Amino acid sequence: MNSHALIDELKTLLEPGKVLTDAASLDTYGKDWTKQYAPAPSAIAFPKTTEQVQAIVRWANQRQVALVPSGGRTGLSAAAVAANGEVVVSFDYMNKVLDFNATDRTVVCQPGVITKQLQNLAEENGLYYPVDFASSGSSQIGGNIGTNAGGIKVIRYGMTRNWVAGLKVVTGQGDLLELNKDLVKNATGYDLRQLFIGAEGTLGFIVEATMRLDRAPKNLTAMVLGTADFDAIMPVLHAFQGKLDLTAFEFFSDKALAKVLGRGDVPAPFETACPFYALLEFEATTDDIADTALATFEHCVEQGWVLDGVMSQSEQQLRNLWKLREYISETISHWVPYKNDISVTISKVPAFLREIDAIVSERYPAFDVLWYGHIGDGNLHLNILKPEHMDKDAFFAECALVNTEVFETVRKYNGSISAEHGVGMVKRDYLQYSRSPVEIQYMKAMKAVFDPNGVMNPGKIFSI
């Protein structure tokens, strides 16, 4: 059957106008935030119900058509890129909040619910959804679950995985599974829910999720501290963790800060120039806690770890301090950065970063290299910026030359080549640096069980 006939068949499964093939739609929905791969889908399908998702998957099995899930398309691993004629399944129209339960502190969402929408709903009900990151205004819950999204609050609240009470999924065979049924305690064999979290749509599509909520934090307060060098950041972390329950601990380099300040809409935290900065957050519920934070700051200054600092005195100042960190990714996107999202255990971070920085500095002395990340949980973001005059493909090819050295170092430290962005196509060929051959074989075997015909997001995580 030719491609036109296949698309005509697909249209019969959905409502009128919910299959698009125009060039603009193919380009928009066929990509995510990565720049390495050109989008080339054959069609974009917009189901509105679980039954329509099942119909699409069963049709794909019958006709051997590859499917790629699409949420907010904010991913950075090319897990949502359709580069080989696949049909993109967009969840934009499955975007309803189906239920809120104040007693259980849960919200039942369709996969297309925007992360910020869930955060706002929680806030309106005196609760809190703590998974947060720069793309919260456009990312979707289904995509967050599919990549096990992390963000800026992991040190206190953990990853998306920690907040998924239950899932409904359509497997690669078109079966509907209801996983865990929102239970807190459930000791009845394998927890298949956990398999689908972080699976990037390779086992099936999430069609409904029950998300847990938490109590709302009180009087969140941030401090931005300028450090004398990178080695000072970890003693600062230990000092504050010994005195306060931190909700976040981030870091960024002076080069990253300079890019944000260059926007002209974010004020500098203080006048002292520092090579690295730490941003920490905590609940200042009493004057004693605020006093403890200031006393710890003074101790860090006395030790020579901190050169200067500021503590927020209002919600507006809190937001302004967070902009220094949260605006980095958006700001540097103008330079088409080559990104690496890597992690090690927290105690290994200083030595690990020194080795990686030495490799990158030696190989790319003419490129701008920016560091930032969630250092409180061991997650570092390495960003190499493309020079204005350089061709994009040539730039990515040049950066890829050092991947083996970087990932060999990751393996040496028993780290991860992808801390929170997923594997997709970007890290697919390097999976062996974080997973053993035996693990990969078991992963492939699990995919074969849920997706025997290989129609669910093929070529992502690993090649089959």
From TrEMBL:
It comes from Pseudomonas rhizosphaerae. Gene3D superfamilies: 3.30.465.10, 3.30.70.2190, 3.30.70.2740, Uridine Diphospho-n-acetylenolpyruvylglucosamine Reductase, domain 2, Vanillyl-alcohol Oxidase, Chain A, domain 4. Keywords: FAD, Flavoprotein, Metal-binding, Oxidoreductase, Zinc. This is D-2-hydroxyglutarate dehydrogenase. Its cofactor is FAD. SUPFAM superfamilies: FAD-binding/transporter-associated domain-like, FAD-linked oxidases, C-terminal domain. Homodimer. Residues 37-216 form the FAD-binding PCMH-type domain. It holds the Pfam family FAD_binding_4. Belongs to the FAD-binding oxidoreductase/transferase type 4 family. Its EC number is 1.1.99.39. GO terms for molecular function: (R)-2-hydroxyglutarate dehydrogenase activity; FAD binding; metal ion binding. GO terms for biological process: respiratory electron transport chain. InterPro entries: FAD-bd_oxidored_4_C, FAD-bd_PCMH, FAD-bd_PCMH-like_sf, FAD-bd_PCMH_sub1, FAD-bd_PCMH_sub2, FAD-linked_Oxase-like_C, FAD-oxidored/transferase_4, Oxid_FAD_bind_N. It catalyses: (R)-2-hydroxyglutarate + A = 2-oxoglutarate + AH2.
